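User: structure tokens for Crotonobetainyl-CoA:carnitine CoA-transferase CaiB-like acyl-CoA transferase, please.
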Amino acid sequence: MQTGSSALEHLRVLDFSRVLAGPFATMMLADLGAEVIKVERPGIGDETRSWGPPYDATGESTYFQSVNRNKTSVAIDLASPRGLARARSIAQDCDVVVENFRAGVMDRLGLGADELCAANPRLVYCSVTGFGRHGGADLPGYDLLVQALGGLMSITGEPDGAPQKVGVALVDVLAGLFAGVGILSALQYRERTGHGQRVEVDLLSSLLAALTNQGTAYTSGKIVPGRLGNNHPSIAPYELLECADRELAVAVGNDRQFRLLCHTVGAPHLAEDTRFATNPVRVAHREALRKELCSLLRRRPAAEWARDLTSAGVPAGVVNDIAGAFELATRLGLSPTVDLPRGPHSSVTVTRNPIGLSLTPPTYRTAPPPLAPPIDRLDPAPG
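Assistant: Done. Predicted tokens:
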């Protein structure tokens, strides 16, 4: 049964954020029904409007499209008294404000948390920064920089190769998700008490929290992890293995799966080998194990092995490109994309929200908005 309503349809969000982390968070709220008003610079807009290639068939940046559906664009010059007055006026009637300027910028504009929350005590005010409001306030919060300074690049790449960034701005995405959780938590508290509050998320802390087992290897085990390529620091075989035509991802998580792997590749004796019988010894002898397995897997194509291993209960799969990944999701009935009309003869296809809700599922109401004309041209300044 569906109620026909959206979970957050009662919320109004004023979004000053640009690029990825903040817009990702506000898009999640918009998908769940919130009204999101995106404040952009007149004539320029969000920086990502000009980030390309790639562009779609109409010449619009696919980067901007990826995180700005279900929003309304408002062009306001925050450098002008008229624009600031309009922004403050809109904030008075909002439940949430999101911004990702450098620390201190919004305070200098008179749009900081203290001022807006004093005028609207129920307001939830979320700031996303690169390195926090204090010691790192002057550091620019770019994803690549945080991946480098935050240690992610040091554990990404081949052991004898250079540090590598992840293939997407993952830290921004993580920060956006943390921001969304923080906002929803603050709204739940407001529901009980009537009080809004400040939510703060920074990219560096988001990355450190997301290091999970690798981070705790350092904090608790006093081990500084390094690059292992596609190997796992604590499990084997959990990597890419060479087949006749290309590599195969094999993710063996326990000894039972390892026995099934050995049986399927025609080498049951490997499961009894003292070097490989349990996970700890497999990790200790991972190179010898890899050599044994690859000598067997090279006899057949990766897709055939993936089929047989999966049937046997061994987690395995080929390495897809992005097109192959979307094709797989479609084949599995996951409906990975949605088409959003943006004119009588045009639409944009974007990746759907992955959250499934039985009564209030995400909705897709509008395409990423065109840049609005300056607000000054639409109506007089507020009284």
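User: Anything notable?

Assistant: The chain is about 35% helix and 15% strand.
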